[in-house]
Write a structure and sequence with these properties.
Rossmann fold, 6-stranded parallel sheet, 5-stranded parallel sheet, 11 strands
Length: 290
């Protein structure tokens, strides 16, 4: 059994197939922010904006450092509050800015936006997640406090689908394995690296046929794969064979592609029974969130 994963995860992936982000019933967030200019400034706006002027911009709390492109694009419009740059302990830093912060930007799952953090920000009205997943945000507490929550939606669907197919081709054709074999000097000692396998004709079971799962299926169909899927319910508009049980899906698949997110319903959905059903030559590609 070969396992490939997009990112390290301490638990099995989990999103019930075709699961969507819960809609928060909150009041509309009307920011008192400066209007966005039609043309972005050239160069590094953060470097060009004097400190005094920056402090007069609408304050936005960052949970962790932003990547340069995002930071540079937004730095001329918002005053970013960065706890990690302050000599103050985190709790004291938050207390010092508690009356000003109305928006929080989350870049990555850590630190978590939990009830303890939200209690430190009584004026908070908006949490913006740069990710699709919101597992790191206490949605119930945000709803209770009337805080709006946004995420990246389907912004990364195509990229994640590409990555899933790339992982599968790499494992089947042993591209990374062959590279390591040569770099370790094993070619002249042990001879040729074992050949890999073709992708065409493989039976691929997709666990979670949402937007990402569907994008993966579309790509793999072009390679001549047979697509099977597991979901909470059968999709009438889909011609792929449906399995209500993941173990039965694994038994008829050469490959399992996990495109669901971590929830209580899908926690450990890929268990020992599933892996035994898939068999010792099976492949698991995990691009699920969680």
């Amino acid at each position: 059994l070969v396992y490939a994963q997009a990112f390290p995860s301490p638990t099995s992936p989990a999103r019930p197939p075709d699961c969507s982000l819960p809609v928060l019933k909150t009041r509309q967030f009307r920011p008192r922010f400066a209007s966005t200019p039609a043309i972005m400034p050239v160069g590094n706006p953060a470097a060009e904006t004097p400190t005094v002027e920056r402090e007069q911009l609408p304050p936005v709390l960052l949970s962790r450092p932003l990547s340069s492109p995002f930071h540079d694009a937004l730095a001329s419009k918002f005053h970013f509050l960065k706890p990690w740059e302050s000599p103050l302990p985190r709790d004291e830093f938050l207390a010092a800015h508690a009356g000003d912060v109305r928006a929080l930007l989350c870049f990555g799952p850590n630190p978590a936006v939990d009830a303890e953090l939200l209690a430190c920000l009584p004026k908070l009205e908006l949490v913006v997640a740069f990710s699709t997943g919101v597992n790191h945000i206490d949605l119930a507490e945000c709803r209770r406090r009337g805080i709006a929550v946004t995420n990246a939606g389907n912004a990364f669907t195509e990229d994640v689908a590409d990555y899933a197919v790339a992982l599968l081709i790499d494992v089947l054709r042993q591209i990374s394995a062959a590279d390591r074999y040569v770099r370790r000097g094993l070619w002249p000692i042990n001879g040729d690296c074992p050949l890999g396998h073709k992708l065409g004709g493989k039976r691929v079971g997709i666990v979670g046929l949402g937007s990402i799962g569907s994008a993966v299926a579309k790509r793999l169909e072009a390679f001549g794969c047979t697509i099977l899927y597991h979901s909470r319910s059968r999709k009438p508009s889909i011609s792929y064979k449906f399995f209500s049980d993941v173990t039965n899906l694994a038994a008829e698949s050469d490959v399992l592609v996990i495109t669901c997110a971590l929830t209580t319903e899908t926690h450990h959905i890929i268990n020992k029974e599933v892996m035994l059903a898939l068999g010792k030559d099976g492949i698991i590609i995990n691009v699920g969130r969680g």
